[in-house]
Amino acid sequence: MADRTEKIREFVKRARLMLDSLEQCVPIFTQLDQMTTMGSEVTKIKDHITNIKSDIISLKLDLEKTNKIIDDIKADAKQSQENVEKRQYNSFNCCTPEAKINWITIFGKVKPDLPSTMQDLIELLQTKLVPILTYYNMLILVLVLLIPDVELKKNKEEIAKFMGVRTLMPL
After folding, report:
1. 8-16 contacts, C-beta under 8 A, 24 or more apart
2. pTM check: above 0.70
3. How many domains does the chain have?
4. Do 1 and 72 form a contact (C-beta atoms < 8 A)?
5. Who is most buried in 33, 81, 114, 156, counting CB within 10 A?
6. Keywords for this entry (predicted)?
7. 3 state DSSP class of 12
8. Residue 171 falls inside a structural domain
9. Of the candidates 90, 113, 144, which is a domain's last residue?
């Protein structure tokens, strides 16, 4: 991921140098624009200037998009690191019913209503469980109607495992 980020940064750096070079040429192009007596050659140069100006605008838009992509990559990487730390916290600290769960955040998504402690997760009803499973893109076990208690427990265990909790049955 760092290699890809460096390549994008190098591209942005080169694009900025091109843009600076083109912008430094604008006064010269403006002087050429004032020499309308040279006929068709001046007309061709004007067309080139127009094309360069539109290329500059296009390049600026591309740079803005690239900067947005870089910012998103940085935010995603930061979020990934924070989630690793949250899983480690949960692994060591979620061993009693009163233990607070440090919920993982999915970049760019709004969290559903989440239980705050292990006991709240253990007592969670299926209706509150489905939005959590959806938030984390986890498969909802389909057999809920056939064996609701068993499947509900499996879904809770899957969430706990995803969060880094060692066991759903704290001490």
Report:
1. 8/66, 8/69, 8/70, 8/73, 9/70, 11/66, 12/63, 12/66, 12/67, 12/70, 15/59, 15/62, 15/63, 15/66, 16/63
2. no
3. 2
4. no
5. 156
6. Membrane, Transmembrane, Transmembrane helix
7. helix
8. no
9. 90
